[in-house]
Amino acid sequence: MKNLVIFASGSGSNAENIIRYFATKPDFCVKKIYCNVPGAYVLERARQLQVPACVFTREEFRNPDKLLRRLQDEGTDFIVLAGFLWLVPPCITAAYPNRIVNIHPALLPAYGGKGMYEHHVHEAVLAAGEQQSGITIHYVNDRYDSGDIIFQATCPVLPDDTPDTLAARVHELEYQHFPRVIEETVLKSANGE
Ligand code: GAR
């Protein structure tokens, strides 16, 4: 059994999609949602899907020894960042080498880094007049959006796009690919690749 936890900060539509996908996979368990925003809608989704959830504070994240111990005590094999907006502390990235993945709503290395999240990304892509955008799934290290890239997929940017219409198209790509890429990456790491 591979135990996954999801870190999320917001709506959690990817978290829900991932939970539903792995609910049909007997060798995987989404054990818990870790959330840094009290009241985030991802917590309501977790409640409805009957997945345990917890909220942690900035202070706990700055001194992450306890959080790391909790992850390890819960038997966490793999961590998925799905719309999680804080930088993961080095002690956690070091404890989970190539076992933390993030999804970014653009084609890294462009439009990444601190402050580049959600609508900020789509606004920047539109302001630059790009003709395509997409998603990047990558390993997480202790710098924003700079771990090795595992998978990318593209979508067009249309002339009349707004940040919202582009976000919706990018979200569709995320739903289509993220769970499968997580599954493949977990299996690779279990085989020592
Ligand atoms: C997703 O589009 C994800 O790619 C993005 O936040 C959104 C979360 O949506 N992540 C980042 O921007 C990270 N830099 P969700 O809460 O509905 O899954």
Number of strands: 7
Shape label: globular
Order of helices and strands: EHEHEHHEHEHEEH
Tell me the quaternary state.
single chain
Structural class computed from helices and strand pairing: alpha/beta
CATH topology type: Rossmann fold
Structure description:
It is a single chain. The protein is α/β, with parallel strands linked by helices and 193 residues long. The chain has a single domain (2-190), classed as Rossmann fold. 40% of the residues lie in helices and 22% in strands. The chain has a seven-stranded mixed beta sheet, with helices on one face. Strand 4, helix 5 (90-95) and strand 5 (100-104) form a beta-alpha-beta unit. It is globular. The structure holds glycinamide ribonucleotide. Glycinamide ribonucleotide binds next to helix 1, strand 5, helix 6 and helix 7.
Present the secondary structure layout.
Blueprint: E1 2-8, H1 13-22, E2 28-35, H2 41-49, E3 53-55, H3 58-62, H4 65-73, E4 78-81, H5 90-95, E5 100-104, H6 118-127, E6 132-139, E7 149-156, H7 163-190
Parallel strand pairs: 1-2, 1-4, 2-3, 4-5
Antiparallel strand pairs: 5-6, 6-7
Helix pairs in contact: 1-2, 1-7, 6-7
Bound molecules: glycinamide ribonucleotide.
